[in-house]
Amino acid sequence: MSKYIDRVLEECRQKNAGEPEFLQTVEEVLTSLAPVIDAHPEYEEASLLERMIEPERVIEFRVTWLDDQGKYQVNRGYRVQYNGALGPYKGGLRFHPSVNLSIIKFLGFEQVYKDALTGLPIGGAKGGSDFDPRGKSDGEVMRFCQAYMTELYRHIGQDIDCPAGDLGCGGREIGYMYGQYRRLVGASEFGALSGKAVSTGGSIMRAEATGFGSVYYLVEVLKHEGETIEGKRLAISGFGNVAWGVIRKTAELGGKVVAMSGPDGYIYDPDGITTDEKIDYVLQMRASGRDKVQDYADKFGCEFHAGEKPWGLGSDKVDIMMPCATQNDVNMDSAKKIAASGIKYYIEVANMPTTNDALEFLKGQKHMVIAPSKAVNACGVAVSALEMAQNAERLYWTAEEVDEKMHAIMKNIYNSSVECAERYGLGYDLVAGANIAGFQKVADAMMAQGIF
Questions:
Q1: Sign of torsion, CA 325 56 418 208?
Q2: Alpha helices in 196-348 (DSSP H)
Q3: CA-to-CA distance for 362 and 406, rounded, in angstroms?
């Protein structure tokens, strides 16, 4: 690794002590960039890496709202506008008790390169709150969203920053926030938020985009290996919106998800989650708020393994593993089980689902193909950007039009990752290739715009 990267990483650790998730993602990206940095000494002269790891703007604010008992509740809100060199800031809002500045900065930093990979003119940002929508009434969620937007609205806009949804922030929350934004600015600026209902300017296929796009990327990986998804058996973690999209699209293309995990354990269904009844029940499980994957096993009479994750399943039961839940879901212990299972494909879907040591270990397994989340899950933000384009034109595209664009974007992301890895002599390294492809686009834009 170059001395420049070493120095920047050490400075970052000193400046951001106590932010482990943020430091983890910075280290993962920068350690992939040595060939690029060596080829471009002008980056060091322009302090490019120092500028890239420092957010352009960090907004932190109080959110006070009234619960159903008439008591005032206080949460902390965030928006990190990380890098706008390629266009208006774009990235989701996460509502979850685990949210803190480290989490939002990690997500924002990842978002910069993910957005760049889409090839669309959008910069990277992320936001959210430690508010937990689970167990709250619709009225409480609405009042929180209105209070959150009452501060956030002054920092966003269709040509400035367009937030979307993320964990804990779905169509309901986006709808409440857009309604408050419209009242505050006095205009129907549809492009100020994405993930809206179709009736208020949203795009068809947005709910399916991240999961569907992940499968489209997987199809390209399999094609490279001379295989197809038909008949493939998948193990996933999580049963939220992204996991549901993976399940549904996999079933449509002839594969099947046979294992799915939740906070309480995982289920193993050798017949696969392939029927409409089973796929729809995953939606019901998510909507129930119970967070129990055992409900699926109880209803359909399959195996349930309490307190475990599906990463230990062998290649006699699973062909592909796709973590779809949350960050650092796969640690070194899990990685060793995955490597020992004999499976060939490990496809990240959730944002940074693998610890750095586990990811390096898996990349070292000669029999395995590893794909990184910032490339695999980029279709969600891509369709959010397509929603902005439709809003700007005051048009609605058909599902077929959006799906065609999704296919093309994911294929381009895969191809650009492969091309960058090969150009810098890294072989078929999809992780490094994605980091380099995203980095190069942002770097070129920043260099062209001068130092600011």
A1: positive
A2: 206-224, 241-252, 276-288, 294-300, 332-341
A3: 28
Each residue's pLDDT tens digit, 342-375:
999 999 999 999 999 999 999 999 999 999 999 9
pLDDT at residue 452 above 80? no
Report the SS3 class of residue 266: strand
Q: Is the dihedral of CA 316, 317, 322, 323 positive or negative?
A: negative
Residue 58 · residue 101 · CB < 8 Å: yes
Residue 262 pairs in a beta bridge with 265
Q: 80 has which bridge partners?
A: 58, 126
Strand, coil or helix: what is 200?
Answer: helix
**Residues labelled catalytic:** 126
Q: CB within 8 A of 314, min separation 6: which ones?
A: 341, 342, 343
**Structural contact between residues 237 and 310, judged by C-beta atoms closer than 8 angstroms:** yes
Q: Is the Cβ–Cβ distance between 342 and 363 less than 8 Å?
A: no
- Using N-to-C axis directions, what is the helix angle for 241-252 and 206-224, rounded to 10°? 50
Encode pLDDT of 68-114 as tens digits. 999 999 999 999 999 999 999 999 999 999 999 999 999 999 999 99
Vertex 69 angle, CA 65 and 70, to 5°: 50
Helices H / strands E in the chain, number of each: 18, 12
138 and 55 Cβ atoms separated by less than 8 Å: no
Longest dimension (CA), the chain: 63
Handedness of CA 204, 289, 165, 149 (dihedral sign): positive
User: Element (H or E) spanning 253, and its range?
Assistant: none
Q: d(Cα 183, Cα 180) in Å, to the nearest integer?
A: 5
Contacts of 33 (CB under 8 A, 6+ apart): 5, 49, 435, 436, 439
Q: What is the DSSP string of 16-48?
A: TTT-HHHHHHHHHHHTT-HHHHHH-HHHHHTTH
Do residues 105 and 19 make contact, with C-beta atoms less than 8 angstroms apart?
Answer: yes
User: What's the burial of 212, exposed, middle or buried (CB within 10 Å: 0-12/13-18/19+)?
Assistant: buried
Residue 261 phi, psi dihedral angles, 5° rounding: -115, 160
Nearest CA to 99 out of 119, 76, 65, 83 is that of 76
Q: In whole angstroms, what is the distance from residue 55 CA to residue 318 CA?
A: 41
| Exposure on the CB side of residue 339, measured as CA atoms within 13 A | 16
